[in-house]
Amino acid sequence: MVFEPKILGFLCNWCSYAGADLAGVSRIQYPTNVRVIRVMCSGRVDPVFIAEAFMNGIDGVLVLGCHLGDCHYISGNYEAELKMKMLGKVLSMINFADRVRLDWVSAAEGNRFAEIVTEFTEHIRKLGPSPIKNDKLKKQILDNLSATKFALCDSRLRALVARQRELTTEGNVYGNIIPIEEFEEILDNAIENEFIRHKILEKIKNEGKSVPEIAKEIKIEPHKVLQHIVTLRARGLVDVDQINEEIPTFISIKEV
Amino acid sequence: MEKIGSVLVVGGGIAGIQASMDLADSGFKVYLVESSMSIGGVMSQLDKTFPTNDCSICILAPKLVAAGRHENITLLINTNLEKIDGNPGNFTVELKQRSLLLDQEKCTGCGVCAQECPVEAIDFFNEGLSNRSAISVKFPQAVPLVFSIDQELCIGCGFCKGVCKAKAIDYTLEDKSTTLNVGAIVLALGFDEYDPGPTQQYGYGKYLNVITSIQFERILSASGPHSGLILRPSDGIIPKKVAFLQCVGSRDKKHGAEYCSSVCCMYTAKEAVIAKEHMEIIEPTIFSMDVRAVGKDFDKYIERAQNEYGVRYIRSRISDIKEISETKDLILHYENEEGKVISETFNLVVLAVGALPNHSTKALAKKLNIELNSYNFCKTKPFSPVESSREGIYVCGMISEPKDIPETVVEASAAAGAVNILLSDVRNTLVTEKELPKERDTIGEPPRIGVFICHCGINIGGVVDVPEVVEYANKLPDVIHAERNLYTCSADTQTNIKEQIKEHNLNRVIVASCTPRTHEPLFQATIREAGLNKYLFDLANIRDQCSWVHMHEPEEATEKAKDLVRMAVARARKLVPLQEQQVEVIHKGMVIGGGVAGMTAALNLANQGFEVFLIEKSKRLGGFSNNIYHTLEKHDVQELLKDLINKVKNHKLINIFLNARINSIGGYVCNFTTNITFGGDKQKKEFQHGIIIVATGAHEYQPKDGEFLFGKDERVILQSDLEKILFTEEEKIKQLNSIVMLQCVGSRNEEHPYCSRMCCSEAIKNALKVKEINPNLNITVLYRDIRTYGFKEKYYNLAREKGVIFIRFKDEQPPEIKLENGNLSIYIKKRDIGDIKINADLVALSAGIVADGEANENLAKMLKVPVNDDEFFLEAHVKLRPSDFATDGIFLCGTSRGTATIRESIAQAMSAASRATTILSKDILKTEGIISKVDPALCIGCNRCAEVCNYGAVGVKYEEGLMISEVNPLLCKGCGDCAAECPAEAITMSHFGRIQIEPMIAEAAKVTVADGRPRIVAFLCNWCSYAGADLAGVSRYQYPPNVRTIRVMCSGGIPKSFILQAFLEGADGVFIGGCHLGDCHYIAGNQDTLRRTEEIEQIIESLGINPARFMRKWVSASEGKIFAETIKEFTEKLQKLGPIENDYKKEKKEIKKEEKKEIILTE
Questions:
Q1: Please, which of B3, B36, B573, B1005 could form a disulfide with B1067 given CB 3.0 to 4.6 Å?
Q2: Global confidence as pTM
């Protein structure tokens, strides 16, 4: 039997959704796999939505907006681009990056809409079902996705992304433009750190674990795990659970 | 040129703070310049301090706050000295402040900005072991408590500005230059730790589990990255075997420096002991060449480390470390006592890094045109340790040589002492006293209370429903006005408070906001400006101890805030105005002891224009220095002595009394009366003076008859005898072939269990002189440890280069000296190379320094001051008050305090003089407002108050046949211990007395808490536990909201009746928090708490109350986490016990009756 992927599409009201309508009016045929959610602007698509989608078993996500420069809200699609880029970085850590695509479809491009959906459906079909459907991997993947989701919720990370365009193109509060490479380095670090921290939190949600145990489970060097534990303790999210002889275990102390 | 009555102090560590405080208290305007964001220096990073294991931040924080709010001190943070011009007495200095990018005046230190900042950076305060934001505060107890933006790291996102409700952040603020006119400059730059990183010495920077001692210090700290848990960096496991390597970057010409860093031996011993105290499973091993425990009580500490804590010492210098890559454990190779090479595996290695000159010393020296020595430390004059090469510029602390905290504090005061002389003519010319309106007489008025409740931006308002609390406060008895403010501490709110006082004719003010420890003085000043006595104020801590620690329970937090306000109102209704008494100061001093220290102190005071009475028991001035010819550094001691004696004798303000005996000393600070007999003809004299300096000195140990053949064979002499020969009978030396020097004679043994500090240097000094006279002579020094601390190490190296042989003997196997066929033979047992025999023509015994026990004890009795076990005088605090006695107005210096070199004695003498000047420079001395008072009608004359008072401030006096206790307001420090002890309740502690606290207890015990949680009334001492609870808030450690805190000055001031009352009013549990034993701000108030704890437990048990409902715990100012955990645990324990009603078997009324009986019985 051919694998029929479940695809979620976020379409902006003004261009892509209209483009999809046009495909209909023009009776252009495309695969039935996509389910569409209308949003006012592609910039509205919170990366957390996509993590949620994957946690619910979606195989692929399409985000479609107006062409750059055409946004109904002036720059919403630029924001969408940055958000998806950031999302891509987190998803690449858990091998999900390929399952998301951001593209532009105008209200006049009914054809293009159908082509993108067809092409993306094929792409996902080739990738196969989301690993979440594999019972053996399910727990691990869910943990990873959950960590991704909470990392994406982090206010500092969101703050960085929210200001990225302004800081790298228009200038910061001192009137300086931050070179894009420099900014991306800061962002990459922040993404990686938050993702790992939330992965750690996932691992110690219900039972206390020692640093080497956590390190083994998430495959990160123990000394780095300890550094994250220090940060998480300072934020009041982790505490010592028990000390057995020379081995302290740590546990998450708050619902994030 | 006209002199200027102000001083610039550069460096805000403990040295700079001490110098500033002394100068500001002596009538000078002080500008304290600090290059970082807070004063406090390295000491603020330390966990504990040796040899007392005092919590560092507990003893430092009050000093920081005091310096921060001193009216004569202006703090300039983030500021550097750029340029200097002018002459001693009148310098022009240019300062540059790097922009904080926020307005220091507006920042309230609330910290919301740091939580929102998206940039993570390395926290250097925690030595890279944790992270911080790009906008941050240096450490939670920072003074001033302001945040700053790190320009290097800030990405300019603008979030902090968005969240700052105080509108403090201003990205456009630029660096600021200031030009000041000052009379003198004190440099206190401190030091840098040696960094083994660049050369990866011992694998540092390469192996994860090799860390530096300062990193380990942060790991030990309860407020450090691991909250006091000792975890090794590689895997977060508690290291079982910890190796400490001494002399990393010290005593090593290849890495770091040639000299000895003086402090590492002791701090390592301390770190090993504290590690063991933290976690029993840790096995510390210390690898060292010599153990240099040269300070007061240091050797006893090393002894305890070994015997009580099982710290293992191995005499070896490790050359290399290897890492086991799988486990990240470390292999060390060393040679043991038998000469065998051992390889041993450790889980963690701590490198005891030495002290290097501060990175900015060199550049600053160039700007100031002052000389440095070959090690790039500041050069000072031989017998004036605080004078730089340029007149008018003084130095103190580590800037001139590595030294420990007490010596640093001594030098800081000494530098102030030097400035005192230079600027004595212009004293009090630049200090300002605020003009205040006359105080309104409120006595007899019914209470009219105003309550000001602070939102603190969102810090309080985000959790506590502030409008609801305001509404509630308005309904409380005697509250006339209640309002809320965005920031109650802002300048405009101060104006508003004053207006409200006027409008509503308020006579009590309560602010519900942050902690009284930092903000009470501000609000007190405000109400005083409005004409109210400053003691008519109370503060309810609804931030640090409420909104910040119950962030997830807003409703409970609001209830708690209401309770705290209600408790404050209950107390405020009973507050009374207090007056600070004023006493006239007699501007004269008495110095006891005419040695170098005594004469230096006398001259310092006299040169400032104060008359001095110098008392010497012998017939000549000079003391023990009469026997010393030159110092290790070859400076002429006899020349110094001649000069000093000359100056003292010719000074018209110094009255010298030789052959003098003190008959009596009466009076107290400001006004002592002393009666002496002096001179060959036994004349009598009585005089009055404001202060006393004790400089009685010590003497050389005299070996017992026959000890090492001393007295039996004339070829066995003392080191001081040898020195005399070297300088007067050189010829004798030329005829000798072999000299043996024997160290530690009369030191570090059972009779004198301390190190005499200078014998090693004296031996090396004489050995070098011998080699100068007769290079072919064989000299052997038999030693246990060579303790040439600091730059003295250079001479140890020199002696070895010149061929002096050093042979170590083990503590328990001292060499034997035998007379064989008329020759002196010395036998030394060595396990590695077999026993050694040396023949000698002369044996010099390095005799130690011993206190004059009887004389010291007699004087101590007269002065009512303590001596220690070794019969040296005991200072008020070994770390931070080395020149003061606990009793005000009496100071000490020189070898009366403990062994010291001449140079150190001079520094101590100047320090004592400076401390004395803080009193003598005033016409009127103001006493504390918060003191105890005795009601003579109730006093039963039992004198128990005198037994608990650590300041000699209270005691029974015989008057007209009556025995009535009396408090000396000049000496009372207001701890309340005597009031708590008084069985007749005749003593009242003001401000925190029964009258004020009992209504608070009633309110605190009455509260209703949700979820059937137990009601806890907690009494916390102001200095440690209350500060610890505040730190829990600052660190956001959450704990259950069912505790109601009552702040007292000292846990020793809590009468047992408070605890009983709390239980009777319905509390389910009572908690007392005090400083750790030994850390008490009032010396030993907590010892009385300890004693009362048992009594309380007995009493409540007899009342049928489970003693587990009472808890006493020592919580230090750095143990925020521990405080939170303790409250959590106590709550859980009480929850299991259920409500207090469960305990009562009888009717409440009966218990009440019984309780009264019980009090009488147990008192």
A1: B1005
A2: 0.90
